[in-house]
Amino acid sequence: AGEVRFDNVRFGYDPDREILKGVSFTVPAGRTLAIVGPSGAGKSTIARLLFRFYDVTGGRILIDGQDVRAVTQASLRGAIGIVPQDMVLFNDTVGYNIAYGRQGADMAAIEVAARDASVHDFITGLPLGYDTRVGERGLKLSGGEKQRVAIARTLLKDPPVLVLDEATSALDSRTEAEIQDVLGRIARRRTTLVVAHRLSTVVDADEIIVLDGGMVAERGRHADLVRAG
Ligand code: ADP
Ligand code: ADP
């Protein structure tokens, strides 16, 4: 489960300015699609539409063949996990932040959920105890640590569809490479949409689409797009 399909999707935040002018793609269950393109092209908008922060003004978005508008908010939240670029953490422990959103979550529940090896890597890869306090607005953690907590939180929901919205682009290149490596392993086991700022960070994607001017300007695998310049 977890096929995501955009069928001629059109959208504008304002009626007189269309951001997406007919975008189509299919991500088969378990595959990875990367969305690249210049800033302002509408990449994050695609993620927001999938999650129904906004609704399309034309076309359809389907998950496993079902229009997202026909799905309850609760099951949509269960089906899709989003890791944004800069997730806000609570002024509480790492454990609390990771468990956030899970009913009655305690350390035992976290460890059960972490049986998924990829999630386990993420949690144990933190150079922090579950009981480390994150501190006011998460400021005591480095960018990489915060992002690991944020990703672990989303992975614990075990969503069939994972959306990484420039999840590592704010990090230094060594930390980005480290986290990309783990994310790459995770992505291999579920449907993943990666919004990226650089083609070089999405080498392994099954398909890459380049958004420009509200449309899919190019699509293909990394090698094809690099060859095309
Ligand atoms: P990208 O992720 O490719 O940088 P976005 O999807 O964030 O682009 O934004 C696409 C366009 O929509 C940009 O021109 C941006 O200014 C505009 N936009 C984004 N969010 C809003 C909003 N909430 N209201 C109005 N316009 C917005
Ligand atoms: P839950 O408690 O079920 O995780 P939330 O409403 O807190 O539900 O968030 C659902 C998902 O959407 C989470 O993965 C969260 O990181 C992400 N999310 C929530 N709000 C935003 C936002 N404003 N921008 C981007 N992602 C968000």
From TrEMBL:
It is found in: Cell membrane. Residues 4-229 form the ABC transporter domain. Signal peptide: none annotated. This is ATP-binding cassette subfamily B protein. The lineage of its organism: Bacteria, Pseudomonadati, Pseudomonadota, Alphaproteobacteria, Sphingomonadales.
